[in-house]
Amino acid sequence: MIRDFQDKSPRIGSNCYIDESAVVIGDVVIGDDCSVWPMSVIRGDVNIIRIGNSCNIQDGCVLHVSHQGEHNPEGAELHLGDQVTVAHKVLLHGCRIGNQCLIGMGSIVMDNAILEDRVMLGAGSLVAPGKTLESGYLYLGNPARRVRELNHREIELLAYLSDHYILLKNKY
Ligand SMILES: CC(C)(COP(=O)(O)OP(=O)(O)OC[C@H]1O[C@@H](n2cnc3c(N)ncnc32)[C@H](O)[C@@H]1OP(=O)(O)O)[C@@H](O)C(=O)NCCC(=O)NCCS
After folding, report:
1. Ligand 1 atom with the shortest distance to the CA of 154
2. 109-124: per-residue pLDDT in tens?
3. Is any ligand 1 atom within 6 A of the Cβ of residue 123?
4. Distance from residue 122's CA to the centre of ligand 1 (Å)
């Protein structure tokens, strides 16, 4: 379901698959070849959400933002680069995710955290507010800690997952 909020309507690129049980609201821009899977919510009401090309937002994810207010003058926008895989049941809140990242199943990324390009976040991790995760590394745990450099196969996996989800959404 794609819904307006006040005068803002989501803008969805070409060849996207938005499952009919997913909800996309307000000031949200989604690039081309993206997929949003069942029961996910992308709510751009109190700030903006920008998603690049070839991203997949898997089942049961929640993507939201923080408003600009007395306690948080900047607010927190949500930005995803290209070829980002957001695995099942992830919560992304007011953060920035670079290109070709994998956000492992059930993870939480909080306001103003930054994941540089090609970061793998292990399943069930929590990235605390304002943290920066460095490109090319595996992070995991609660709070998320840097574990090791990604190997060649894992770097390849990041693009592979995005490609795989493009093929899958094309079947839908
Ligand atoms: C972290 C991950 C990449 C595995 O990395 P790895 O280096 O191969 O780790 P291993 O499986 O060899 O496990 C090493 C240790 O880490 C632990 N571990 C593995 N994954 C973990 C996780 N997500 N969080 C915490 N600990 C984890 C293992 O239990 C093991 O602990 P031990 O040494 O005490 O036995 C993987 O478990 C993971 O979380 N992948 C994300 C999967 C996902 O969400 N995919 C999306 C599908 S579309």
Report:
1. 3
2. 999 999 999 999 999 9
3. yes
4. 6
